[in-house]
Amino acid sequence: MSGHSKWATIKRKKGAIDAKRGKIFTKLVRELTTAARLSGGDPGANPRLRAGIAAAKAQGMPQDNIVRAIKKGTGELEGPPVEECVYEGYGPSGIAILVETQTDNRNRTSAEVRSTFAKSDGNLGAPGSVAWMFKSIGLLTFDGDRYTEDEVMEVALSGGADDVTREEGGITVTCDPKAFGQVVDHFDSVGFTYDSAEITMVPENTTPIAGTDAEQVLRLIERLEDLDDVQRVYANFDIDDAELERIAGGQ
Question: In what side-by-side order are the strands of the sheet with 163-167?
């Protein structure tokens, strides 16, 4: 999702993500535990777990933390029961928003998500109301100053990826979610370091927004992301680069 990825890049440049590293680790641990609980602790046979491990390593999570999280998922270590809940809704200008959560208290999470939508001129929709607008892909990002597009493309295509694109400051590799582990392993085998690696959702089509609507949508997404039980937020907006810079400069 172009708008959301561009906004994330701007936030990284401003140091916003590092300030929330502790919260990021908590969410990564939940994802590792859930992935292992649902499909086992072998990353070679569990693409979602492989993605979680890649994301954790990209954020600098210690190996011991990763192992403990997986063992909690497989039942080798005790941990609180956690369930996945997905919420669908709309923001200003009818922007479709998909919210993935992991929680030990569904009622609490539902209330928090609903309240966050309402406070930001959005509203929750019925199950299935916006999920059809998104598709799952494997996504890896690389530092554009460290690697050239041709270097990344050569490794990506030989490893089974689908596409390579260059954006401001970075290079993006996409692949089928089922091939994610294979692609990540291939980059690891040749010594390439990725900034991020995940299985994510992208919109089939985007809606352009600007001005107050753009500010409200970004504010809503940030508030949702700040909720402890929220793992990921996806949206189908598209915001012009200059508009993003203007909004980021006012934060």
Answer: 163-167, 170-175, 134-143, 196-203
